[in-house]
Amino acid sequence: SYIICAIVGAILALNGHFALTIGTLVAFLTLNKSFNQPIGQISQQINAVAMAQAGAGRIFDLLDQESEDDQGVVTLCRVETVDGKMVETDKRTGHWAWKHPRSDGHVELVEMKGDIRLEGVNFGYFDDRMVLHNVDVYANPGEKIAFVGATGAGKTTITNLINRFYDIQKGSITYDGIDIKLIKKDDLRRSLGVVLQDTHLFTGTVMDNIRYGRLDATDEECIEAAKLANADLFVKHLPDGYQTMLTGDGANLSQGQRQLLAIARAAVANPPALILDEATSSIDSRTEKLVQDGMDKLMHGRTTLVIAHRLSTIKNSDCIMVLEQGHIIERGNHQSLIKEKGKYYQLYTGAIEMD
User: Fold this and answer.
1) Of 293 and 189, which is predicted with more confidence?
2) Domain that holds residue 240
């Protein structure tokens, strides 16, 4: 309406029709603009309300979802050795076992070692479209297993299945010889330390963020975990040390510092098994060395599953598995795969050329 009034009014004023002057036209356009402004504001408010309704609809859909049906019966418990026999205890012994009820009423304690096995696993987010095909993975206690391959090959999917975020269509996944379907999900996930590429810190002190790995950890245990992760040095230089407040997802820290706190968080949990998903991909090479040293200390003696695009970080792995379109096409250590001059050789030599 503003444009129409301006054009028509200008034509009438210039041709002297209806005794319309330029001053009158300007006054009329000012009134026109004042009249249209609240209409525009109302339309913007209606648009905001419509967007809010759409967002609220998704939130309510999520809230209406039924809780996961957890039929697991095996739980995690602390144990100590008395007269050469494992017994359950409330003490912080650093040793854990699976509390496995048997059909005869007997409860068996199975030592938690970190033996993870996937046998003949087929999985798809939809039943008609498989993502993983006949995957076999054997991780003995204390071994470091690495997964490499192109984006979308199924590396992260494997770790999601071990955490039982999804259930497989075919095959079996066992943890210390126990089918993970028998293990309560909370206990299963509590036994696995996870360090991801994207680190999320909470509003609170540095100490609180480290303690999130194990809520009953003491201050001394959190500081020891920070030293193990090479985070203690930079934390001491913060304004209030371990009592420094972090806000905005740790916005006052660098990416490398946030990653070191994530490693410290996993260290204080002291899990027998670790999952490291692209943990050093978003930091510079100098910081990567510090983070890598922290992760090497954390991985010592623990079963570790590593997903990495920087192949230099997995050269010392006990076994490297190369995935392509959901299939494991190569497996072996670094030296044997280089000698084969297959897909891993192409990925590794290409990475060196890029560096």
Assistant:
1) 189
2) 116-354
